[in-house]
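Work Package 4 report. The design task specified in the project plan requires that, given a folded chain encoded as structure tokens, an amino acid be chosen for each position. We show below one input record used in the internal validation round.
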């Protein structure tokens, strides 16, 4: 089993990182993909500590849309920063999480779009997948992925729509782009019936599972800090939805992870 998206470099895990890793392994996790904010020295240091505890961890590095405003004067600098960190990070396997978020006013949409484009272009140049965050910005997110994905002179664009909460149209658009759909503990929430209905239409060979920890703890852990071990609840719920075993979900999503991230 693999947690395809977590934030183990977050300071909330600093005090008990070793115990979190032990619980993940005890739960049957092969590895986890940990997200790093490009240029964050504290996160980079904790990621190095994490790798010493769990060498099979892999990393993704990117400028989140919430941080895009810091590059308003020079959007291309975001991609330069990501490139520099990826180059010195052997465990890096993706550019992310990146994308657009219009729910919060942390950066103007135009700035977010410029920073996003620069990083998608970099990912194609480096032949790395992208991990996409999109919130209240689906149309612009898909447009930029489509435009940048067909720009000449670079590698094929591939990636995942992380923590998917959209409807059938977004799922179909993501699949049409060749992307994977990643499901979090949200699918276990009682009020997530519409999301579960959408998820049933997504082929299992295009699905990943994640925690997005420390956020979005699944049932029955709501209200607690989330952690990679709890991805087992996502696998169980997904299996129940499709009438298959959690073991079948684990095997398929591990294969999907390997196909996308080439660990």
């Amino acid at each position: 089993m693999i947690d395809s998206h977590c934030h183990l470099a977050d300071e909330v895990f600093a005090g008990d990182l070793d115990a979190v890793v032990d619980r993940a392994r005890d739960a049957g996790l092969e590895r986890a993909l940990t997200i790093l904010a490009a240029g964050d020295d504290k996160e980079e240091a904790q990621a190095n500590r994490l790798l010493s505890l769990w060498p099979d961890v892999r990393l993704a590095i990117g400028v989140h849309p919430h941080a895009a405003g810091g590059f308003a004067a020079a959007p291309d600098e975001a991609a330069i920063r990501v490139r520099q960190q990826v180059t010195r990070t052997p465990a890096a396997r993706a550019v992310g999480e990146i994308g657009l978020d219009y729910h919060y006013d942390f950066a103007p949409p135009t700035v977010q779009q410029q920073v996003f484009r620069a990083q998608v272009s970099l990912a194609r140049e480096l032949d790395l997948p992208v991990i996409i965050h999109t919130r209240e910005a689906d149309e612009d997110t898909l447009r930029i992925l489509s435009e940048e994905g067909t720009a000449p002179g670079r590698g094929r664009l591939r990636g995942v729509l992380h923590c998917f909460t959209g409807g059938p149209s977004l799922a179909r658009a993501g699949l049409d782009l060749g992307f994977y759909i990643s499901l979090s503990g949200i699918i276990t929430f009682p009020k997530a019936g519409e999301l579960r209905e959408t998820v049933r239409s997504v082929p299992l060979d295009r699905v990943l599972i994640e925690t997005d920890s420390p956020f979005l703890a699944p049932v029955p852990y709501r209200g607690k800090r989330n952690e990679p071990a709890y991805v087992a609840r996502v696998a169980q719920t997904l299996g129940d939805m499709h009438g298959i075993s959690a073991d079948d979900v684990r095997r398929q999503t591990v294969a999907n992870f390997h196909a996308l991230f080439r660990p």
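The mean pLDDT is 97. Validation will be extended to a larger panel in the next phase.
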